[in-house]
Structures are given as structure tokens and as C-alpha cells.
Amino acid sequence: MASRIQALAAIAAGAALLVWPAIVNGYPILFSDTGAFLAQSLVPLMIWDKPWVYGPLLHLFHWRITLWLPLVAQGLMMSHLLWLTGRVVWGARPLAHVALTTFAAAVTTAPFTIALLMPDVFTAAVVLALFLLGFGADRLGRWEMLWAGAVATLGIAAHLSHLPVAAAVIAMGILLRRKLRPALRMTAPLAAALLLLLGTNLVGHERLSLSPHGSTFLLARLQADGPAARTIAALCPDRGWYLCDFTAWMPMDSDLFLWERSSPVNRDAAGNDRFLGGALLSAEAREIVRETIAREPAAVARAMVANTLRQAVTAGAGDVIAQPWSDIDNATGSRIREFFPAAEAERYAASRQADRSLPGIVSPLAWVHAPVLAGGVLLAFYAGWRSFRRGDIRSLALVLVVLTAAGANAFAAGALSKPHHRYQARIAWLIPVVAVIALLPAPVPGHGHVPFSRPAYRGGKGQRQRGADSEA
């Protein structure tokens, strides 16, 4: 009982540490897109560019009462996943867990992701959950494994960029384990997430598709890089595309192309607003993207590689704490004022985000993120090499899984959307954290590392357990 109380206390303390920006703010950290996710269940509204997953999850906790409850849930989820990861790698250590979460909260971008009410929180959660499914079955209980599976499923479905991240992590896990049961455990959440996306899009958009209008985003990226802009200019006006009237506008910044009210997506050549312009453009966008890839495959590939590399080294908290308050208030504050009690609206209005003082408070603390990340990458490679030399597959797998996820996230966000600090910050913080986990002192015999491959020995009790561990 005492050990369980210590574990619960450590997880709760870790959760509080990991959401400290919200505590300083006096309210959960909000983003302009938070309002769209709230609208998914409050209006309700199927947002054309967002899976119908994170919004209902928010509602599961806020119930039109307060957004503090989803914030608490996010902090506990991430602290618990880190606790389980530590337990799998080096056993149950409450003080070590508090120290680890203190490190993550103090010198990485973790709290600026976890305290933010956005599906970004699930990027790292998916990676840790999949690691637990692939490498923790013999150290965790049945309910803990089911919990990891549920987190992985919902997290993968919560944001489309998590699909390639999850696929990359699963591939790395299968490569390391090379056993059927771990492969099935890791693959099942991805399959379930795909079904969830197909089902919700069929109901909400009447299309059996993972991303009914995702082609608009890829077009935005390709025209910003140049190839799609050249395709449109070369084939217009013969193709009769809507965008033929805007060849002089392109290439233009992808964010402006998608979201600026006066952009070709959102206002036609006659100056009329186009409601849900991104959705209206998606069919044409698919055709233009196909033509562009066929015409300039090398240019498309070069742009994707360049944007992936740029995204890989673009990871900071600035996008979160410095977004213009007017954008947040227009998109998210309006939802809070309309659907939540007056007391909640007052708490929102009294936040440091609202009075614009939050950036000045937390920005001086953010300078450390870049050097810690750079050092963390080097430390992670060392930790992986050290784990390999020791035959410690769990620690090695943890490091390789996170590094693989970081690379896949850089591709998903940078090459397919646009490099932003927030996109890589949501996963980069795991690199120094797992390096620390992998480098902690070796656990006691019988509760430590698992060799790469060792057949089950039928003799002594200890050897039978070691063999079972390697097969789990």
C-alpha cells in the first residue's frame, strides 16, 4: 500500500510540474485552433481540416464547466506514461520520476506542449504508448497495457501527422523485436485509429477517407515551394481550374494561402468570400498535386527533404507563447464566452495570456531549450550506443523509437505542411528525457535489461524468467 501511495504521489507531482505554464498563466494555455476543437462538440461542427477526435476528448472532461479539467487530464496522462516507461526500463522509482519530470519541466519544451489544449500533447503520448506496447508487456499489468493501447489509438487519430509517426515507430519496434505478439500489440492501435478516422469522416463528411480534404494542405505546401505554382501557370487556362485566376499570386506562403481571408482559397476573383474554401478546393487540389508530382518529381522531393531538415532543427516554445492574443480571443475566447459559465469566462479573461504578460514571464526561461535539445541528441546517441554494448534492448529501443519518431514528425510536419517551432517542439522534448532514462544506473538483477535475443532456458527458475522476458 505504501509503495502504491508513493507511486500515485509521484505521478501527481510529475503532472503538476509538467503543466507549470498553465499554473503561471492562471488558466490552461490556449491556441487559436483550440476554439475549433471546442466547436467540434459544442456547436457541434465537423471542422473540414481536423479529425473529429480531440474535440470530443476535451468535452469528455470539460462538460461545459471548466477547461482546467482537460488540462489536469493531459498532465496526469503524460506523467503516468513517463512513470510506466520508467517502470519498464528501470523499475518503480518515485523519487527518480519526480526528478525526471522536474528536468523535463525545467529545461525542455514539454510543459509548453502538455499545458496547451491542443492535440500536440498526443505526439509524445503516442510514441511512449507504442513503446510500452512493444517492449513492456512483461513489466505491466493487463489494464496498463489496455490503457497504453487506448492512448495510442486516440492519439494517432487525433492528428493526421501522427499516422506517419506511428507507422515509423511501429516499423522500428518490429525491426528490434522481430516477434509476432509485440508487432501485433503495436500495430493494433494504428489499425483502430484508421478505422476511427474512416468512420468519423464517413459520418461527418460523407466520404470514406482518412483525410477528405488533405490534398488542399499538400497543394499549399507545393505551391509555396514552387512546383505546384509552376504547374498551375503552365497548364492554365486550358485546364479550367479555379486557381487559374490566381497564377500571379503564387507562389505564396502556405499559411497565408490556407488561412488569410483574402487568399485565393478564401476569396474568389470577384472578391466574394468562399465559406470553407479549403474544402471546396480539395478536389481540384488533388488533380494539381498529381500533375505536379508527375511533372517535377525531383523538385518535389528536394523541397520535401529541405523542409524536413528545416523542421528537424526548428523546435521552440515561441509559437505557443507568442501567438497574437487577438487570434486566440477571436477563435477560442468566443467559444468560452458563448458556451461556458460566466465564472469560467472570467477566469479566462484574467489569465496572463489575456493581459499579454505571459510571454514576458516565460520567454527568459526558454533560452535553455535549444542547447538542452542539442545536448540531448548527442546524449541520446551515446545512451543508445551504451545500451547496445550492454545488450539492453529496452533502453536501446526507447532511444531509437524516440529518434525515429522525431524524424518522422519532421517529415510529416515540415514536408507535408510547413516548418513551425510548435510542430517539432511537441516531440523533441522526449529526446533528452529518454536519454536520461536510458543512462540511469542499471537496475537490480532480475528487474533490469532484457538481452537482444536469448532462447528460453528450461533449467533454473531465474533463467526461465529471463527467457520469458525476451519473448513477451
If you had to describe this structure to a student in words, what would you say it looks like?
The chain is mainly α and 472 residues long. The chain has two domains: 2-158 and 161-207 and 324-370, no CATH class; 214-295, no CATH class. 69% of the residues lie in helices and 0% in strands. It is built from 25 helices and no strands. The chain is globular, with a radius of gyration of 23 Å. Mean pLDDT is 92; it is low at 444-471.
**In percent, how helical is the residue content?**
55-70%
Seen as an oligomer or otherwise, the chain set is single chain
Largest sheet: none
Elements, N to C (H/E): HHHHHHHHHHHHHHHHHHHHHHHHH
Shape: globular
Kindly estimate the percentage of residues that lie in beta strands according to DSSP: under 5%
* Strand count: 0
Low-confidence stretches: 444-471
| Average pLDDT number | 92
- Number of helical regions: 25
Structural class: mainly alpha
Number of domains: 2
Q: Could you give the distance between the termini?
A: 28 Å
Cα Rg: 23 Å
Helices and strands, with pairings:
Layout: H1 2-18, H2 20-25, H3 32-42, H4 54-62, H5 68-90, H6 94-107, H7 110-114, H8 121-135, H9 142-158, H10 162-177, H11 180-205, H12 214-225, H13 227-235, H14 254-259, H15 277-295, H16 297-312, H17 318-321, H18 325-339, H19 342-349, H20 358-362, H21 369-390, H22 393-415, H23 421-428, H24 430-439, H25 461-471
Brief overview:
The chain is mainly alpha-helical.
Attribute tags:
472 residues, mainly alpha, 2 domains, 25 helices, 0% strand, globular
